[in-house]
């Protein structure tokens, strides 16, 4: 598959930042970077104007019936000039070879995603890091689940682009929906993504992550609940052996993905809290993400409210 095809990079963001500069410097002349904001920001307009014409501001507007991220991606897909598409986020470092590496991945195996490693920015988020390592890194890798922070594909890889964009404007998770429209291969290459910042934000993220699995992979959610219940029971019945086994297993996962964090030691208490956390997340009627409150009743039934 051609590695030299011109590429449209879609970057939803709330303002011009380091990520915009990092990606702009990696563009080939035929490529384009779409900086997608909810509204036209003078600071972004000025910075875009200082770059070549292949860096553009795209104004997405306010979302109606979908998340701000899904709305931004849908608008960006329609505005993009090329068939080769890269989605990314502004919350991690993009090294100088990031875009070229994704091009090479696509040439070798088609649609490809990298892996997130979520790094907690508050005490509760740090405690949850073993959960993030399992569901956000390990599961993404073995199940070939696309991560919207770093994924490359071609429009022709989508089963039905028109239907995809129509449904994107009626749901929350951009990458959750992409999973249903394209076959993506995950590569064992990680990017550190800061997450949380306060207890409330971490709990809101937990609700959102759980709801994504609930709506896009209900069978996986049921399996997760069964495994979590069995693991919690084992931890309660055999605390010392379970502590040693769970901690060693998590240390192995961390080592396998190059995660150099002490938080694998929190695996045992997280295992005990798995079912209460799952129950809490499923019981919540809404969650806050990016300054908006969402009520996600069904996969394609979303109400956007002020937080």
From TrEMBL:
Annotated organism of origin: Natronorubrum halalkaliphilum
Keyword Membrane: yes
Keywords, comma-separated and alphabetical: Glycosyltransferase, Membrane, Transferase, Transmembrane, Transmembrane helix
PANTHER family (UniProt xref): CERAMIDE GLUCOSYLTRANSFERASE
Gene Ontology CC, one term: membrane
CDD domains named among the record's database cross-references: Glyco_tranf_GTA_type (cd00761)
Chief place of localization: membrane
Coiled coil feature spans: none
Protein name as catalogued: Glycosyltransferase
Pathway in which the depicted protein is active: Lipid metabolism; sphingolipid metabolism; Sphingolipid metabolism
